[in-house]
Amino acid sequence: MEYDVIIIGAGPAGYVAAIRAGQLGLKTAVVEQMYVGGMCLNWGCIPTKALLESAKNFDRTKHYAQFGIDGIDLQKLSFNWGQAKSRSTGITKKLTAGIRYLLKKNGVEIITGTAKLGAGNSVMVNDNKISATNIIIATGSKPKAMDTQLEGAPIVEMEKLFTIETIPENIVVTGNHVPAVEIVQFFKLIGKKVTLIANSSSFLYGLDDFLLSYINKKLKSENIELLLNVFPERYENGELLVGDKKIKCDLLVNCNSRSAIIPESEIPLEHTDRGFIKTSDDFETNLKGVYAIGDVSGKSFVAHVASAQGIHVVNTIKGIKAKFNTRAYPINMYTSPEIAQIGMTEKQLKDEGIEIKISEFPLSANGKAMIEGNTDGFVRLLSDKKYGQVLGAQIVAANATDMIAEAGAYMAIEGTIYDVAQTIHAHPTVSEIFMEAGFDAVDKAINK
Amino acid sequence: MRYIFNFPDIGEGLDEGTIIEWYVSKGQEIKSGQSIVRMETDKVVAEIPSPKSGTVIARFGNVGETIHTGTPLLEIEIEGVFGEEAVAQAKAPVVLATVEEGSTAVVGTMELAGSNAYLPASEEGFTVPKTEKKTFLKVLATPVARAMAKELNLDINKVTGTGPGGRVTKDDVQNFHLQTVPEEKPGIQAPVTPDEAVTYEPLSQIRKTIAKNMINSKLSAAHMTVFEEVEISDLIWLREKYKKVFSDKNVKLTYLPFILKATVNALKQHRQLNSQMDLENNRMIYKNYYNIGIAIDTTEGLVVPVIKDADKLTIFQIAQKIGELAEKAKERKLTLAEIRDGTFTLTNYGSIGGIFGVPVINYPQAGILGIGRILKTPVIKDDQIVAGNVLPFSLTVDHRIVDGGEATRFIINIMEYLKDPFSLMME
Q1: Is residue A339 located within the same domain as residue A373?
Q2: Would the CB atoms of B143 and A419 count as touching at under 8 Å?
Q3: Which of A199, B328, B352, B382 has the fewest CB atoms within 10 Å around its CB?
Q4: pLDDT digit string (tens) for B254-305?
Q5: Catalytic residue check, B68
Q6: CA separation (Å) from B104 to A152, B14, B186, B380, B406?
Q7: Same domain, A133 and A269
Q8: Do B143 and A418 touch (CB under 8 A)?
Q9: What is the pLDDT of residues B210-262, one digit of tens each?
Q10: What is the CATH number of the domain that holds B133?
Q11: B 316-355: CB under 8 A from A
Q12: Structural domain for A345, as ranges
């Protein structure tokens, strides 16, 4: 069977590329082993955020009395893990059905099986040989395996978290990046004893130091123990040995840094030093007409960038040329409060020798934030001194992950702090803090 | 109405191009700014964007065919334009705007080069030639691009955007502002037929452009050349040592990456050499980025691809980049972006066997460094005559900008780095 495009993997990189290819009239097939929607829909973005929402609601309920709501007996309040899971699964089912529908609607063939790359742009699936002018590898990644010395420890990866019947008391999470912080806070919010082990020196690498120091303080205030740059060494008698510490551990959640899932290939694919598939600026591998996008190419590990890469590659294949902008994408943390960042950090800007102005506005002076009872947070804009171009934005707020889109729009059109200040924001809204930070950068904030 | 898009002057002074690949087909809806065709000229391969949105009615020319500038490339149906004015304009002769002096950017001339035989469907993103008695329409541009254009005192309407929907971005303004003239070096001479006394051949566009730019450089800049020699035995040892390491990674290590690195380090300490004089505005423009042009001799003639932000690259990356660009130059696959925006130029006639030269400045740059061939020659070391390896240099500067003392300090600075190549890595 001959196609214009074969896409291997139906996660947020692959399925978006497939839909786009279908829309452009390319004869397209997508090969998926098991999960349409990939990690994002099945055990990543969507289900974990659904669980976090349950946990945040659980926590909020404890504070309802101050909003004038009586009748909640805190003694009787409990977290129903089974229900939270099934709500999450329900959302996943709806969304994956939606993707199957969209793939079908756009004429994309879904082939279930494991793909192996052959010579001459061919792909072997279930002993059938298919081929295409272009092949897009979007096979994703998995967390690095835990040390073999930890055998016997109750290790679980996110993929399998949803199969656990009950959640034990003492939880240890290992990992260095956003998902590790989110999941450790989830367990904390539902009342578990938690420890976060950041087993490398690059805890939350890429985040602005200002946000990092906020997060460190936040973890401390919530009694979440954070162990930096250490490795769990052994597991015995229900305890994890980390350095000279013994930590009670009934469940060890592996949120480690990612390693690529690279499909077998007859002609070897070139790798980067870190073991991902090496690609050009337009995501082409060392094999002509074979592209790699999403986690497997190691250029980013978030769904929205993977999807953007997918669209870019399909456009490139179709001859619609554009430069892929790698800098301006949001990094979101669905913690409580939420944390979001876009663009360059203070350090990156300083390293590039760009003179910047930093303007901030706290949520504690924002009416809507007070109304909602979420005054923990701020907005921070980094702009260049010369033209006032917004080069970076950081937000801590209950809905920071949605609010960051405003900064994304400013940055996409190379907007300046003058544009931010002159955009009339409705009152009362939390988003007003943007306008205030804009004023602050231009001259002086009104309400500060 | 129908609009015929003529092959525009893509700014290198070339009057024809060969179609390599069509990106659009008949009946296809296209957007303004979308690449429609890939064209190869004598110097570069360029993607030609459509100036208008609409539906493709006809393509003129097949892959492999040569198209002259000003002749039709694509016919587009643009919706929403009709009436007498459309008819009148459609009948008007196709007038090609001439490229302005010193303006070599594709972006600056693209719209001017088109036919006037259409009315814009939308005001945004469209500019009209200055010669027309029409009010200037507002070009689509980002806020930062506008601020920058204002500060640089340039007309943003002359800049064609590469952003979404043809929006003018910061980079577009920067590129427009910093565009450089093409390299001025002579190409390879055609063989003379022996049985006639003289042979008459028409001047090619490249030759005309070269002639214009050479004269422009010689008339605009005050050329002054200094000559130096440096003993580089340590560098030879170092290069020998790493040649194999590099070639294992498929990268050829020549002396050029070291010389380029030394030049960039020296440019950082002598900013006049990385500058340009802006007499119109009574000021100097010091460039805080280091884009080094490398003269590469190809069968088609000399081209000067530019190594961008060379200060941020390691010796390995520079060597790799030189290899890549040389390869592309030989296959004539360089893009316009790859030959623009140089801030200083290296010309290595030593690779052909030359020793000294008086290079002509790639105007408006402030200097050009000529590199000769390494000479095995007796030198005095510790009062003994020993075999030495001497590398000759010829540095031409624009004396309006750079004084003799500074030129000599600059070249001595480069020589010190090359005498003690380890010092290159210490910064």
Answers
A1: yes
A2: yes
A3: B382
A4: 999 999 999 999 999 999 999 999 988 899 999 999 999 998 887 766 778 9
A5: no
A6: 69, 11, 19, 50, 31
A7: yes
A8: yes
A9: 778 788 889 999 999 999 999 999 999 999 989 888 988 888 899 999 999 99
A10: 2.40.50.100
A11: none
A12: 331-442
